[in-house]
Design brief:
alpha/beta, Cobalt-precorrin-4 Transmethylase, domain 1, 41% helix, single chain, Methyltransferase, Cobalt-precorrin-4 Transmethylase, Domain 2, five-stranded mixed β-sheet
Length: 286
C-alpha cells in the first residue's frame, strides 16, 4: 500500500510539473516542443507526464496510427490538434518506394521535408504554442524524431519526455534479466548496422562479438533475420538461444517465440507477423 501511494504521489507531481510548464506557454511566453516517447504499445505504457503534455498541447504531430492506438485504450487525441503526419514524406509508402528506386532523390526530398517541418515548429514555438511530436517507444533508442526530423534543431527549443522502449517490454515478456552475471554487455543494434548498409561482408563484427558473453537486442531486423542468422551461424554455437518478441508490450497481441541460432530460420516461418518483432540473442532468451 505504501509503494502504491508513493507511485500515485510521483504521478501527481509529474502531472503538476507538466501543467506548470504548459501554463507558462499559455501565459504569453515562448512556446515549446515536447518530443514524447509513447512506449511500445499504447497509453497504458506511456508515462503520466507524457499523457499530461499531450492533453494540454496546442498542436500535435503524429502518425495516423497513434490516435487509433489511443482509441483502443479508451483515450482520445483531439483530431483538431493534429497538424499533420510528419513521417509520410520520409517513411510513407511512396517514400519507401522512391528510396528503393532512387536513394539520392529520396534523400533530397526528405531533407527538404525536414526543413519545412523544422520551420513549422519554430514558427509555432515563437507564437507561444505547445507542440507535441509523438515518437514510438523511447525517442533516444532508434527514435526517428532525433534521427531525422530534429537533426540540427536548436536544443533549447525542445524537451524530451522519455518512454518505455520495446527493449523493456521484451525483457518483461521473456521474464528474464537481460544482464545475467556472466554477460559482459548488452548490445543494441539493427540488421543494417550489423550487416552494413548496403549489406556486405562484416566478418570482423560477428567474429569479434562472438568472443564475449553478450545479450544482443536487434531492432528492425525481422525482415533481414535470415541474412543476420547466417552470419551468426559462422561464429556462434547453433544451440545459442534466440527469441523473437512479437508486438512487445501489446497485452492482447504479444507473443514470444523461443528458438536457437540453428533453428530460428525455420521457426519464424510459422509466424504470421513479418515486421513487428524484437530479436533477443543470448542466454537470457533460453
Amino acid at each position: 500500500m505504501g509503494k502504491l501511494m508513493c507511485l500515485i504521489k510521483a504521478a501527481g507531481i509529474a502531472l503538476f510539473l507538466a501543467s506548470c510548464s504548459l501554463n507558462a506557454a499559455q501565459a504569453g511566453e515562448k512556446g515549446k516542443l515536447y518530443v514524447v516517447g509513447m512506449g511500445p504499445a499504447g497509453p497504458d505504457l506511456t508515462a503520466p507526464r507524457a499523457l499530461a503534455v499531450i492533453e494540454k498541447a496546442d498542436l500535435i504531430l503524429c502518425s495516423p496510427g497513434m490516435p487509433k492506438k489511443f482509441a483502443m485504450f479508451g483515450r482520445y487525441i483531439d483530431p483538431g490538434k493534429v497538424a499533420f503526419d510528419p513521417w509520410k514524406e520520409i517513411f510513407g509508402k511512396e517514400a519507401r518506394a522512391l528510396k528503393k528506386k532512387n536513394y539520392q532523390q529520396w534523400l533530397e526530398k526528405s531533407e527538404h521535408h525536414i526543413k519545412k517541418v523544422q520551420a513549422f515548429l519554430v514558427q509555432s514555438i515563437e507564437k507561444g504554442k505547445t507542440v507535441v511530436l509523438m515518437d514510438g517507444g523511447d525517442p533516444c533508442i532508434y527514435g526517428p524524431s532525433l534521427n531525422y526530423l530534429l537533426k540540427g534543431f536548436d536544443e533549447d527549443l525542445f524537451e524530451i519526455i522519455p518512454g518505455m522502449s520495446a527493449l523493456n517490454a521484451a525483457g518483461a515478456a521473456l521474464k528474464q534479466t537481460l544482464t545475467p552475471e556472466d554477460v559482459r554487455f548488452v548490445l543494441l543494434a539493427s540488421a543494417s548496422s550489423l550487416l552494413g548498409d548496403p549489406p556486405g561482408k562484416q566478418d570482423d563484427i560477428f567474429k569479434y562479438l562472438s568472443r564475449f558473453e553478450t545479450t544482443m537486442v536487434l531492432y528492425m531486423s525481422l525482415k533481414s533475420l535470415n541474412r543476420v542468422i547466417k552470419r551468426f551461424q559462422e561464429y556462434y554455437p547453433l544451440d545459442l538461444p534466440i527469441a523473437v518478441v512479437y508486438y512487445a508490450g501489446y497485452a492482447e497481441k504479444e507473443k514470444v517465440l523461443r528458438s536457437t541460432i540453428g533453428s530460428i530460420i525455420q521457426d519464424i516461418k510459422k509466424m504470421d507477423e513479418k515486421w513487428i518483432g524484437l530479436v533477443i540473442v543470448g542466454k537470457c532468451a533460453g
